[in-house]
Amino acid sequence: MINNFPSAEELKAWRLANPEKVKAQNKRAYARLSLEQRKRYNENRKAKHKQNPEVNRARDKARYKAHPERKRTAALRALLKSVGASVSVLEARPKYCQICGSGKKICFDHCHASLKFRGWLCNKCNTALGFAGDSPEILRKLADYLEAHHGQTDCKAA
Q: Contact, 76 vs 108, CB < 8 A?
């Protein structure tokens, strides 16, 4: 250490040993930037990201493998932004499907025509709506069909 400043190696080692402190420092530094500086900073980051797509893809894949909930949350936030819904919708996500009550893979359901949020469904119910073309008539006909054939011995109820 010369002049009480750490060497590049010492600084790198400290950063690796203290990721939370580094993150807090970066947040404080970003908060001090003007809007113009933030815009330039974000543009530079995007340009750098585009220069190394393989490196970024590998890093993201490793990050999402270690924390799979982050990928789903990031995807949901992007979807909310695209349909104009607020993040409070994401925070109010229930643990169970609004149709069948299942607690597995709760999905964001929205109208593809108007892009309006409809509710939270499990993956199976959301997929069923999609295969039916979001048509209430088709879904009623499916229900009628199932009820008409429910008593058959070769069919098993779920």
A: yes
Would you state the structure tokens that stand for residue 45, as one six-digit string? 């980051």
Tokens representing residue 88 in the block: 């409070």
The answer to whether residues 121 and 99 touch, using CB atoms and an 8 Å cutoff, is yes
Backbone angles phi, psi at 40, to 5 degrees: -60, -45
Q: Residue 53 carries which side chain, given as an amino acid letter? A: P
Transcribe 130-141 into DSSP letters.
HHTTT-HHHHHH
Q: Helix or strand or coil: residue 96?
A: coil
Average pLDDT over the chain reads 82
Provide the 8-state DSSP code for 110: E
- CA–CA dist 77, 74 (Å, integer): 5
Q: Indicate yes or no: pTM above 0.90.
A: no
Question: Which two three-digit tokens encode residue 139?
Answer: 């879904």
C-beta separation of 103 from 95 below 8 A: yes
120-137 per-position pLDDT tens digit = 889 899 999 888 888 889
Find, among 131, 142, 134, the residue nearest to 116 by Cα. Answer: 134
